[in-house]
Design a protein that fits this description.
- The protein is an alpha/beta fold and 221 residues long.
- The chain contains 7 helices and 10 strands.
- Strands 2, 3, 4, 5, 6, 7, 8 and 10 form an 8-stranded mixed β-sheet that branches. Strands 1-9 form a two-stranded parallel sheet.
- Strand 4 and strand 5 form a beta hairpin.
- The N and C termini lie far apart (48 Å).
């Protein structure tokens, strides 16, 4: 029996043109908009507090599910996500200040770690939902104290799990990655596209003349 191609597997359901993003992350908004989607940022009532006795992968999954279930978006497809940096089974969240950012970066220096990004989808029309998590391994170069201090002081990593964002200057700190780059940025686009038919949607490429990224509507953080 012939196996369906990737395009055939993701091409069933209703064409997806817009999503309600239950996240204030500008990176996730930009990634979804790059697919030609209209992105409306909606609030979520979910309280993203630390959860004891769960693994970093479980933490990302629970946070993504909570954000999606706590968002009110009528009939739209709700999209939520959470990214956790995992070092030896310990979750590194967003640093509270520059000093903590330095400690996180020193811990990542010269070694591998894992980045888990979970995404949750909820179809407002059918109540269908799912959650998936994608993991990518990242290896940092050996960083000297001066490099760590300068990057931490720049503030670029203060709003990011693990105190760095691979899509910015911190790309110069990363030696290798094993897995999906967009998972590290904050949203695994290919896994998202492959999961959409399970909640009744599919993505279609835009014609070249319509491929300019649409503007994003921001209703609330």
């Amino acid at each position: 029996m012939r196996r369906r191609t990737y395009t055939e597997r993701i091409g069933h359901g209703t064409p997806l043109d817009a999503v309600a993003l239950a996240s204030a992350s500008p990176r996730r908004r930009e990634l979804l908009a790059s697919l030609g989607l209209r992105v409306t940022v909606v609030p979520s009532s979910y309280d993203e507090t630390p959860l004891p006795d769960v693994t970093p992968l479980e933490l990302a999954t629970l946070h993504a599910q909570g954000k999606a279930s706590g968002a009110a978006a009528d009939d739209a497809l709700v999209v939520a996500a959470d990214t956790v940096v995992d070092v030896d089974g310990e979750a590194l969240g967003k640093p509270r200040d520059v000093a903590e950012a330095e400690r996180m970066l020193a811990r990542l220096s010269g070694r591998w770690h894992e980045v888990h990004t979970a995404f949750a989808l909820r179809n407002g029309r059918t109540a269908g939902s799912l959650v998936e998590v994608v993991t990518t391994r990242v290896r940092f170069a050996d960083l000297d104290a001066g490099t760590i201090a300068r990057y931490a002081a720049s503030g670029d990593g203060l709003d990011k799990a693990g105190a760095y964002g691979i899509q910015g200057f911190a790309a110069t700190l990363v030696e290798r990655i094993d897995g999906d780059y967009f998972t590290v940025v904050g949203f695994p686009l290919a896994a998202f596209a492959a999961a959409l038919p399970r909640v009744g949607y599919f993505l279609r490429p835009l014609a070249a003349e319509a491929a300019a990224p649409p503007s994003s509507e921001v209703f609330a953080r």
